[in-house]
Write a structure and sequence with these properties.
Layout: H1 3-7, H2 15-20, E1 29-32, H3 40-47, E2 53-57, E3 59-63, E4 69-73, H4 80-91, E5 100-106, E6 109-116, E7 132-134, E8 139-141, H5 144-197, H6 205-239, H7 245-263, H8 273-280, H9 286-299
Parallel strand pairs: 1-2
Antiparallel strand pairs: 2-6, 3-4, 5-6, 7-8
Helix pairs in contact: 5-6, 7-9
């Protein structure tokens, strides 16, 4: 952890602390009277939540005359030993959790504000194997079904992130390959007439044409590889229910055209209209076109 985060100190209250003290305990804030009241499970609960959280140490719960829960700053000892206790509780979590420890000060009454990020390695547990998550003002035990759900969600997000990055790289590779194929084909179209017309170098024709044939074979092989890679990408997109970017773009253009034609007086309810549009925007199924058509008509009251 950054040493600056551990030693940061406010002579008064930071904006963050002031805002937290204006609220009741909840999903993202907890109060502790002293260091001994802080447990590893408190840190785990926030790390397993979807939002970052804060724990104020040296603040106890009380109620006002209306019975509303309000915080009361009682302060706590600020020392390297106490900071080490906090760090140890966080580091003993599985996996270890990085926290930010800030010294706050209210009218010469110091207390700690601990910032706990929503972790990217969920689910977290204490060293004794206790899994908890922050509920509305409390730490709630995570039941097996919820635990499995958190694990699957975290792993899925990580996989999708990596998959999207790989797909983006592969898409660029396919684009580069397509350009190379077009360049080679253009080169072949340019040199073939010249090679066939060079009578004085006719003895070289067989060798040159052999090289041309090899180039054509390479182009064909590259096209096959590109087609297979495209099928793999589409299969993965379908498996994870991610819409093909090409289809998304096609849908956007299709809907925009329907709106424009309607505004220009075209009868989009004509029975031949959809057939004409399919000829212009080919690349989607009949079912997809019908769905897009129904959506744009309903969304824009056409």
């Amino acid at each position: 952890m950054d040493e600056l985060n551990e030693r940061r100190e406010y002579q008064g209250l930071s904006e963050k602390a002031n805002a937290l003290l204006m609220r009741e305990e909840g999903y993202d804030v907890d109060w502790k009277r002293g260091i001994n009241g802080l447990e590893s499970e408190d840190i785990v609960a926030f790390a397993n939540s979807k939002k970052d959280g804060s724990i104020l140490i040296g603040v106890e719960e009380t109620v006002n005359h209306d019975g509303k829960q309000i915080p009361k700053i009682v302060g706590c000892k600020i020392s390297d030993a106490n900071k080490m206790k906090i760090k140890t509780k966080a580091q003993n979590c599985v996996p270890p959790i990085e926290v930010d420890i800030i010294n706050e000060n209210m009218e010469d009454i110091p207390f700690y504000r601990i910032e706990i990020p929503s972790g990217d390695k969920k689910p977290y547990c204490t060293g004794k194997g206790t899994y908890k998550i922050r509920d509305d003002g409390n730490n709630k035990m995570i039941v097996p079904d919820k635990l499995l759900s958190i694990f699957i969600e975290t792993e899925s997000e990580l996989f999708l992130k990596r998959f999207k990055e790989a797909a983006k790289e592969l898409e660029q590779d396919l684009y580069d390959t397509s350009n190379q194929i077009n360049q080679v084909q253009s080169y072949i179209e340019e040199i073939l007439p010249e090679v066939e017309g060079l009578q004085e170098y006719s003895y070289m024709s067989d060798e040159i044409l052999g090289m041309v044939n090899k180039i054509e074979e390479y182009v064909g092989s590259t096209e096959i590889t590109a087609n297979w890679n495209e099928k793999r990408i589409l299969a993965l997109l379908n498996h994870f229910d991610i819409e093909d970017p090409f289809v998304t773009n096609l849908k956007t253009m299709f809907k925009h055209s329907v709106i424009m034609m309607s505004e220009n007086g075209r009868n989009i309810k004509d029975k031949n209209y959809l057939k004409e549009m399919k000829k212009i925007y080919f690349g989607a199924t009949e079912k997809q076109f019908k769905q897009w058509y129904d959506e744009v008509v309903e969304e824009n009251n056409l």
